[in-house]
Amino acid sequence: MLSYEIINQEDTAIIREVCENDNSQEIFEQELDNALEAGYKYIIIEPTQLADETVRWISVGNFLSQTAISSGVLSVGIAYFWQSKPFIYCPLVLTSFVCTGLYMVSWQFDPCCKYQVHKDPRLKSLQKEDNTPPLPVVIERGSDTNRKIIHTTITAVSTAYCIWKFYEFCK
Q1: Three-state DSSP state, 43
Q2: Pseudo-torsion of CA 63, 69, 74, 80, nearest 10°?
Q3: Strands (E), 34-105
Q4: For the residues 45-49, what does the mean pLDDT come to?
Q5: With a threshold of 0.90, does the pTM exceed it?
Q6: How far apart are CA 51 and CA 36, in angstroms?
Q7: Would you call 81 exposed, middle or buried from its count of C-beta atoms within 10 A (0-12, 13-18, 19+)?
Q8: I need a surface site. Which of 59, 80, 87, 141 has the fewest CB within 10 A?
Q9: Phi and psi dihedrals of 144, rounded to 5?
Q10: Residue-range domain boundaries for the chain
Q11: Are 95 and 71 in contact (CB under 8 A)?
């Protein structure tokens, strides 16, 4: 059994991999949902399949947010310097708009979007022998308000600016 002395036990939920029946995956998912709703600072996920799905879900949300920000900023830059190239900045602003929309619809209200994969090098000390199951995934709760404000603001400003530049180009 792993020892989790590094992480404060009061703020931590541990989803243990205990396979007792055929519904164990559903039980693990329910435990994770309960931990997410409870708002623990750290959640340690031992079941490999659930950990992989959780990391993937968090990664996709991060990708959408980062894509919205980068494509929005890039579209404004291109629209500013090359307003005669709407075939470049229009798809970029559309990408930013779609990514922000997907994030707002699919991730904004999901309690998992408030978590990030914890990357503390001290957790490597928890590594077990080669013949044992893989190291569990640790996710850490943080504020996602700034990220939401930033990507929404950048998308709104870039959309308005690019529409204005496109309108000037078409006149």
Answers
A1: strand
A2: 160
A3: 42-45
A4: 87
A5: no
A6: 13
A7: exposed
A8: 87
A9: -110, 10
A10: 46-120+131-170
A11: yes
